[in-house]
C-alpha cells in the first residue's frame, strides 16, 4: 500500500496517520510493522514517532499476524496440588500467565503445555486451562482446569463468588482500622476493614485502574497482621476479582503496596535494596472439587524475597 501525504497531514505522527487510514488494523500491529522495517518513507525504514511532511511517500508492506496459539516450552513450574480435574501452581513474581501483545513466550501457559498433555480449551488457543489470572508481579497460587467440564464448574464458582481468595501484602504506612473510606466487619470471629469502591479503567493512563462511581462493584477486606511505624503486613480477602483490585483499593486509602510504582509506591524505599517486584502474594485459595464438591484449600508458601523483606522491615 502507498500513501502520498497531503498538506492536511503535515506534522502528523506516522503511526497516528496509518491508524486513521488502516481502520481494520490495530495500532499495536501497525507499530510492530514500523519497528520491523515494513513501513517505509521514501524507500527508507523509519520510526513510529516520525512527523510527516507534505509530499512524503509512505509504503506499507502488511505482514500476517503471529499465529494465535500458545506453544509448549520446557519451563519448570511449582505444582502445589493436582488431581484429575485441576492443577494448582505456585506462580512466581515476574511470570506472565498467558501470551498476549507483549509476551509470546516464557508464560505460565507455555510451561503448562509442556508438562500437561490435556488442558481445558474453553479459554481458547492462547489460554488453555486458564480459569483466572494473577498480575505479572503477583506471586502465589493459581488454579488451572484440566478439561472443559472442570473449567466450567470452577468458572461458575468464581462468578458466584464462592471461591475463597486470601492474599498477603506489604504496604507503606500503618492503616487505621477501619480506614476513613471503609467500615469494620467481622469475618470468622475476627475484625476486618471493608473497602467498597467501584473500579474502572483510568481514562488518562490506560494501563491503570481507578476508583469511580461509574465503575464495577469491588469489595476488598483486610486486617493488619503486623506493623511498624512505616510498614505493615496485611491479610487481604477479596469478594470480587476486578483488575488490580487490591492494588487500587490500598493505594486509594494511602497505603500503596511496597514496590507498586504504578500506584504511587517509591521504586527504592529509603534504607532498602532496590525493589524488583511489588509485594502482593496469593497465599491461599479455597474451592469445591469440580467432581465431588469436596472443599479443597491450597496454600502457597511465601517466596524467598518476600520473607527476606519481612525480616528487613522487622515484620
Layout of helices and strands, plus pairs?
Blueprint: E1 2-4, H1 14-21, H2 27-35, E2 39-41, E3 44-45, E4 57-60, E5 79-82, E6 86-91, H3 108-115, E7 139-145, H4 148-159, E8 164-172, E9 182-187, E10 190-196, E11 199-201, E12 209-211, E13 219-227, E14 231-238, H5 245-252, E15 280-288, E16 295-299, H6 304-313
Parallel strand pairs: 7-15
Antiparallel strand pairs: 1-4, 2-3, 2-4, 5-6, 6-7, 8-14, 8-15, 9-10, 10-13, 11-12, 13-14, 15-16
Helix pairs in contact: 1-2
Q: Report how far the terminal alpha carbons are from each other.
A: 61 Å
Percentage of helical residues?
Answer: 10-25%
What value does the Rg take, in angstroms? 23 Å
Number of domains: 3
Give me the oligomer status.
Answer: single chain
CATH superfamily of the largest domain: Pseudouridine synthase
- Can you tell me the overall shape? globular
SSE sequence, one letter per element: EHHEEEEEHEHEEEEEEEHEEH
Largest sheet composition: 10 strands, mixed
- Annotated CATH architecture of the largest domain: 2-Layer Sandwich
Count of distinct strands: 16
Tally of separate helices: 6
Can you walk me through this structure?
This protein has helices at 14-21, 27-35, 108-115, 148-159, 245-252, 304-313, and strands spanning 2-4, 39-41, 44-45, 57-60, 79-82, 86-91, 139-145, 164-172, 182-187, 190-196, 199-201, 209-211, 219-227, 231-238, 280-288, 295-299. The protein is globular. α1 (14-21) packs across α2 (27-35). The strands form three sheets. Strands 5, 6, 7, 8, 9, 10, 13, 14, 15 and 16 form a ten-stranded mixed β-sheet that branches. β11 and β12 form a beta hairpin. Helices cover 17% and strands 28% of the residues. By secondary structure, it is an alpha+beta fold. The termini are far apart. The longest helix is centred in the middle third of the chain and has 12 residues, at 148-159. It has three domains: 2-60, Roll (Structural Genomics Hypothetical 15.5 Kd Protein In mrcA-pckA Intergenic Region, Chain A), CATH 3.10.290.10; 68-160, Pseudouridine synthase; 161-291, 2-Layer Sandwich (Pseudouridine synthase). It contains six helices and 16 strands.
Amino acid at each position: 500500500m502507498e500513501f502520498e501525504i497531503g498538506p492536511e497531514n503535515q506534522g502528523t505522527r506516522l503511526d497516528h496517520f496509518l491508524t486513521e487510514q488502516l481502520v481494520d488494523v490495530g495500532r499495536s500491529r501497525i507499530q510492530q510493522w514500523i519497528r520491523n522495517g515494513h513501513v517505509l518513507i521514501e524507500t527508507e525504514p523509519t520510526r513510529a514517532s516520525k512527523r510527516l511532511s507534505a509530499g512524503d511517500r509512505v509504503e506499507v508492506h502488511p505482514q500476517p499476524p503471529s499465529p494465535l496459539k500458545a506453544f509448549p516450552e520446557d519451563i519448570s513450574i511449582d505444582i502445589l496440588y493436582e488431581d484429575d480435574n485441576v492443577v494448582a501452581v505456585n506462580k512466581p513474581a515476574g511470570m506472565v500467565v498467558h501470551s498476549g501483545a507483549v509476551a509470546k513466550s516464557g508464560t505460565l501457559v507455555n510451561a503448562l503445555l509442556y508438562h500437561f498433555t490435556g488442558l481445558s480449551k474453553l479459554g481458547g488457543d492462547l489460554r488453555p486451562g486458564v480459569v483466572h489470572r494473577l498480575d505479572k508481579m503477583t506471586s502465589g497460587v493459581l488454579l488451572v482446569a484440566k478439561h472443559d467440564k472442570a473449567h466450567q464448574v470452577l468458572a461458575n464458582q468464581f462468578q458466584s463468588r464462592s471461591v475463597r481468595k486470601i492474599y498477603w501484602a506489604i504496604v507503606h504506612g500503618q492503616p487505621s482500622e477501619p480506614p476513613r473510606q471503609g467500615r469494620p466487619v467481622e469475618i470468622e470471629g475476627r475484625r476486618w476493614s471493608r473497602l467498597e469502591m467501584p473500579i474502572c479503567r483510568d481514562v488518562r493512563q490506560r494501563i491503570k485502574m481507578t476508583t469511580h462511581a461509574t465503575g464495577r462493584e469491588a469489595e476488598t477486606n483486610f486486617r493488619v497482621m503486623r506493623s511498624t511505624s512505616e510498614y505493615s503486613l496485611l491479610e487481604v480477602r477479596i469478594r470480587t476479582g476486578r483488575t488490580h483490585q487490591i492494588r487500587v483499593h490500598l493505594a486509594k486509602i494511602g497505603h500503596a503496596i511496597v514496590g507498586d510504582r504504578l500506584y504511587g509506591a517509591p521504586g527504592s524505599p529509603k534504607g532498602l535494596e532496590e525493589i524488583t517486584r511489588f509485594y502482593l502474594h496469593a497465599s491461599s485459595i479455597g474451592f469445591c472439587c469440580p467432581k465431588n464438591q469436596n472443599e479443597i484449600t491450597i496454600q502457597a508458601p511465601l517466596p524467598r524475597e518476600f520473607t527476606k523483606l519481612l525480616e528487613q522491615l522487622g515484620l
